[in-house]
């Protein structure tokens, strides 16, 4: 029995829901796509299932399974690297240098698979199947896997892909025939640890560092609450508690200062697409939310009532900004465009007429007033100052400018802004009666 991940510490019902789904795929000789958060314990789960004979027996699997595990972290991200690793695992005694010729590699893999006894169940696990590796593999690779299974008289090969969320499901749908039930019905969304499994993981951590057994018994509930059952967060919080770097009463935002915790949260965050990140940011800001995203529920970040799985991750979310979030609004020096600066780049709005009948720049008066309001955003701009900006000659010679003239220009500015849908979402011009105007930003 391997000692990897100290899997002997876990009871036979460890991660029972997820293990049962993987076992069912093996029994039915099907392919499975197992998706979970970075750091949720995917590799440990594989070790638990396939390196403990009592687990195989408990779930009614034959003890003589032939399992090979192609670790995406240990190979070059190309087809030759995958085939070479499969060949090395199928036949460790091969001494000849492994070629990078794809045809030769595929033939050698096929030969080694055909050497297996017909009743042997072959399980091929693609662990750490990251997006970069997926992008490097062609449809021909998946066709080869399909053909490899057909080359066995009993079709007894199961393929298990252990992946994060940032893989492209559409790429798998192009090779749907590899999944007997279809891709959508062949996804196992890996769960976070329940309380009992979390406590077992804490016990395992104490054993690994020769700490006194039971030294964290009074903190187990708090560790589970903080980590939300996320394996890597659970490990970090356990060590911080044990070293008294944090206490049970330490606030989540204080714990987030520890680099390991922050890195674990960042990895989960980076695994999400921008629209899901934005949804979570709105949630952290207590915006009025629509129904929770089903994908985020499946992934485990949210519960069905929109609760975040871990207060540590919730604290991390509260510090994030949207990818397209506006950070600054300004006018260029020539007063020919507005610049909306976002985290993903600048958006430019030329100060031009939007009518088909009139083209070119807007009037100097219009542009001067708008740029002055922008330069003094969120501040009261008094009428007399706006007159100086918009009508410098009249102001200089003491000629009066009626309120109506200024009001008409402000109305024109508002009308132009309404036509700039993206810009209009972030600013509005407020009238301060008898005093002036204020350009209010909403970012």
Tell me about this structure.
The structure is a single chain. This protein has 21 helices and 11 strands. Strand 7 and strand 8 form a beta hairpin. It has helices at 16-27, 42-50, 53-58, 79-90, 102-114, 131-136, 139-150, 169-173, 195-208, 220-227, 231-242, 252-255, 259-270, 274-284, 294-299, 311-318, 364-375, 383-390, 392-396, 403-419, 421-424, and strands spanning 32-35, 66-71, 122-127, 157-163, 187-189, 326-331, 337-342, 345-350, 381-382, 427-432, 436-441. It is an alpha/beta fold. It starts with 15 loop residues before the first helix and ends with a strand. The mean pLDDT is 89. Helix 4 runs parallel beside helix 5 (102-114) and helix 17 (364-375) packs across helix 20. The chain has 3 domains: 4-189, P-loop containing nucleotide triphosphate hydrolases (Rossmann fold), CATH 3.40.50; 195-318, no CATH class; 326-441, Winged helix-like DNA-binding domain superfamily/Winged helix DNA-binding domain (Arc Repressor Mutant, subunit A), CATH 1.10.10.
